[in-house]
Write a structure and sequence with these properties.
The protein is built from ten helices and ten strands. The chain has about 240 residues and is of the alpha/beta class. The protein has a domain of about 170 residues: Rossmann fold (3-Layer(aba) Sandwich). The protein binds adenosine-5'-triphosphate and magnesium ion.
Length: about 240
């Protein structure tokens, strides 16, 4: 890990996300430098998923600006957000359990790539995650939780994103699998990916990230180098105590 400053790849300015009268995100500004892992931590209902949903084009932000590599990508619909380089691994993974591993990958990529290129891209992901290669023809619903998370990662990586948006990748997994998923996150990062990681497991998130933001009630309350936040008494009291 290095703290060397890099150009921001993703810049979010004064983002507001609302569902009717519920103001889930209230003026969030943050940036993710190219090649870094930035984490966004915070309690249930803080607005973490809402931020990622707005970035991935699943929910149009009410106000604010999002730039990727300098280009305005605010409020793009999902398929255009993917094409622009924003790829989401959603909370709960959203795997199609009654389809095979391969069908899940084909469905994710077929609108974007010609069949030959898509198959080559799927082969590449099956080499990256050999267990998916072995289970390529099996129903995705028969995979373990950790394997389903790998499938969700593979699906997002098919698009060769400029930035990978991870929403609670540790959710619902045993400690051993959580460790494996985080090793995967670090591996993907070493291969050059820029990552915005949303996590409730603050300890793990702060251990892999370069920079961190803390979100509460739709607003950022703290930010800084992840190592420093991990030492901050306020973060320790709220997020790192009690055997998290
Ligand atoms: N589709 C929706 N319709 C109405 N309200 C919503 C919707 N999605 C989220 N909210 C509300 O917006 C706020 C932020 O929710 P969000 O899911 O973004 O939080 P979160 O930080 O991801 O929480 P968690 O850690 O539980 O995943 C909450 O008050 C939530 O109830
Ligand atoms: Mg969430």
């Amino acid at each position: 890990m290095s703290d060397a400053p890099a150009l921001p790849l993703l810049e979010i300015e004064d983002l507001h996300v609302a569902y009717g009268h519920v103001e889930a995100v209230r003026g969030v500004s943050l940036s993710v430098p190219e090649g870094s892992i930035v984490t966004l931590i915070g309690p249930n209902g803080a607005g973490k998923t809402s931020i990622l949903s707005a970035l991935a084009g699943l929910h149009r932000p009410r106000a604010g600006t999002v730039r990727l590599g300098g280009a305005d990508v605010t409020g793009l619909p999902a398929h255009r957000a993917v094409a622009a380089g924003l790829s989401l691994v959603p909370e709960g993974r959203a795997i199609l359990g009654r389809m095979t591993v391969e069908e899940n990958l084909v469905l994710a990529g077929e609108r974007r790539q010609p069949p030959g290129a898509l198959l080559a891209a799927i082969d590449e992901q099956c080499r990256r995650f050999p267990i998916l290669g072995e289970r390529r023809g099996q129903l995705a619903g028969s995979l373990s939780g950790g394997q389903q998370q790998m499938l969700a990662f593979a699906r997002a990586l098919l698009a060769r994103p400029r930035i990978l948006l991870l929403d609670e990748p540790s959710m619902g997994l045993s400690p051993i699998l959580v460790g494996q998923i985080f090793e995967m996150v670090e591996q993907i990062h070493r291969e050059g990916a820029t990552i915005l990681l949303v996590e409730q497991n603050a300890r793990l998130a702060l251990s892999v990230a370069h920079h961190a933001y803390v979100l509460e009630h739709g607003k950022l309350v703290l930010s800084g180098p992840a190592r420093e936040l991990a030492e901050d008494p306020r973060v320790q009291a709220a997020y790192l105590g009690g055997g998290h």
